[in-house]
Amino acid sequence: MKNQISKAVISRLPRYYRYLRELIDQGVERISSEELSRLMKATASQIRQDLNHFGGFGQQGYGYNVKSLYKEIGNILGVEQAHNIIVLGAGNLGRALVKYNGFSQHGFNFCSLFDVDEALCGKSVNGIGIRPINEVDDYVRSHEIDIAALTIPMDKAREMSTLLYDAGIRYFWNFTNIDLQLPDDAIVKDVHLLDSLLELSYRICNAK
Q: Which architecture characterizes domain 83-195 according to CATH?
């Protein structure tokens, strides 16, 4: 069944999780799909359809128990499992990722940073060591790494992602603004920061 769930549904699950956490912090105990739809800016029908992929969780006339639904979606997202991450690129963005402690609260463990700058190697960021980039292949093969975060220059991204794929990594968090060329069983989550700004630019220019 998991393979039949669309990317659109999967992409909405973290938003459900985030909004439910906010409701818990506000002391809300239960919520209807209609109330949740107003928060999510989605239709109540869409929310019910999304959640029905995983069992529904609601009760007619009652709605959803917020804490229970939060836990169920967390289980679906795998937040109770540990996911080990390496970061290629120890520049400003790479360092910012490992400095943010919110990731570890959801099971994401940064294991190592890698960089071409020898002056950085041997130093650490938030307790995470920086290693030479030429050690990444051996490191991946000798450690259980789930995700590679790429914050390296675009001209190196495809080469390094192929190396990492050959070493066994199948999940990539790509900040490089270039589309990786990997086999179909590789899962790539692109984070195109410039795309987001250009979309805002469009909205600014067309607001009048």
A: 3-Layer(aba) Sandwich (3.40)
CA 4 – CA 11 distance, rounded (Å): 14
- pLDDT per residue as tens, the chain (208 positions): 455 788 888 888 999 999 999 999 999 999 988 888 888 888 888 888 888 888 867 666 678 899 999 999 999 998 888 999 999 999 999 999 999 988 988 889 999 999 999 999 999 999 999 999 999 999 999 999 999 999 999 999 999 999 999 999 999 999 998 999 999 999 999 998 888 889 899 999 998 6
Where in 38-143 does DSSP place strands (E)? 64-65, 83-88, 108-115, 124-125, 128-132
C-alpha span between 122 and 90 (Å, rounded): 12
Give the three-state DSSP class for 129.
strand
Q: Which CATH class is domain 2-75?
A: mainly alpha
Residue ranges covered by each domain of the chain: 2-75, 83-195
Question: Do the beta carbons of residue 1 and residue 55 sit within 8 Å?
Answer: no
**Paired strand residues for 97:** none
The pTM score is: 0.85
**SS3 assignment, position 187:** strand
